[in-house]
Amino acid sequence: MAIDPAETNWSQRFEQGLNPAIERFNASIGFDINLLQHDLDGSVAHARMLGSCGVISEAEALQLIEGLEAVRAEAACGSFQPGLEAEDVHFAVERRLIELLGSLGKKLHTGRSRNDQVGTDLRLWLRSQIDAIDAALLRFERALLDQAELHSSVLIPGYTHLQRAQPVCLAHHLLAYIEMAERDRSRLADVRGRVNCCPLGAAALAGTPVPIDRRQTSAELGFEAIYANSLDAVSDRDFAVEFMAAASLVMVHLSRLSEEVILWASQEFGFIGLTDRCATGSSLMPQKKNPDVAELVRGKSGRVFGHLMGLLTMIKGLPLAYNKDFQEDKEALFDGVRTCLDCLEAMAILFEEGLEFRPERLEAAVAADFSNATDVADYLVAKGVPFREAYQLVGGLVKDCLAEGILLRDLPLERWQQLHAAFEIDIHAAITPRQVVAARRSEGGTGFDQVQQQLQRIRSLLDS
Q: Distance between CA 360 and CA 372 in Å, rounded?
């Protein structure tokens, strides 16, 4: 059935159509078509509820549902291709339903508005995307955990201020990023709870006199609650901001790890080698192998941060209730989700098959510096020397060693005993990098026993 051209205007209130440029400017069909499946889900639930409540007959509700499923089938085979004239996905579906069912299709919108409809669609979509990001975070964590278990006895320099500080277990370093990812998962789960609140039935802003059952549609769509205030229901975009803030922290963590990968892959560090699977070359310099994955992830973090600021700016001055400004939330969310998912996948692949740690280089690095200086002070503390006194003694010793071009490991016992009578023959064993790491047995520390416990805990957590 063809649509009457007169019905393309909003109502008899309008006498002319939109200026073509304004029509293009106003339309969102180019991007909100991403919500099609969720719009159909919401409409099916709404139609079923209208039939259950007696607003329309059960037979009419069934016909509407069959018509909506026909649209879904058309979308699946590619024949449903709404153009600019549809303006948005909601009108595109309703328009096609009227073509299929005639005047019955016009009953679907009873008791709802596009304002509560778009809010419902967006929440349904974002809920599914949060689940997808959670799965991507799990894959990323498993990739890190596999590397950590493989290198549970390998040492790496630990840094503060990007200066050599103390040696740590490589697995301990990687486990730190898993802890960050676990916080990301927890934050996203918390956000999901607030996303999972149904605005459908709030209508344009004030509710509806139609005798609908909001809780029926909410339950059918898998929501945990309904909005208690209709004004809040159609104007709330806090969940979008919260999501983007959580996604921004995901990107912060990926970007920090990317920066380390970039440093580790440099000749100056040489801690890892990049495989051909995840590296590119130079168009000019044939010897180059570039860490493009890590660099792109580091760069793409700015996109997600920008979307967060864009959402905050978009909503900060809006009066209640719905405003057309809200159309700007979708492209930000769509791109933010896609960027986050792409970066998580890329970083998981990078750690699955894109890099190889160089244990011999790492072992050499931790053996050739003064990162065991604190352990000399701790040695004296264990002998009863006050820490601040021990700290000053070792600081002077390091200064002398630097001037002489030697390391602490090179000092003979006589030299140690000249510094303090508490030093004994076991000082040399106490400051070897492996012993330095093993000695850090405090809960959460880098000691090998502690790291093994953490590896087992994380493996059990991820496997569950």
A: 19
To the query of whether residue 235 is one of the catalytic residues in this protein, the response is no
Q: Is 39 helix (H, G, I), strand (E, B) or coil?
A: helix
Q: Is 128 known to be catalytic?
A: no
175-230 residue pLDDT tens: 999 999 999 999 999 999 999 999 999 999 999 999 999 999 999 999 999 999 99
End-to-end CA distance of the chain: 53
Nearest to 331 by CA among 118, 28, 88: 28
pTM score, whole prediction? 0.93
- Cα–Cα dist 223/233, whole Å: 14
Structure tokens at 66: 């069959």
Residue type, 376: V
- Please pick, among 57, 128, 266, 282, the residue that the annotation labels catalytic: 282
| Catalytic residue chosen out of the listed positions 11, 79, 103, 161 | 161
Q: Which neighbouring-strand residues pair with 166?
A: 158
Could you count the other beta carbons within 10 Å of the beta carbon of residue 321?
A: 18
Q: Using CA atoms, how far apart are residues 108 and 50, in angstroms rounded to an integer?
A: 8
Crossing angle of the two packed helices 170-195 and 448-463, in degrees rounded to 10: 30
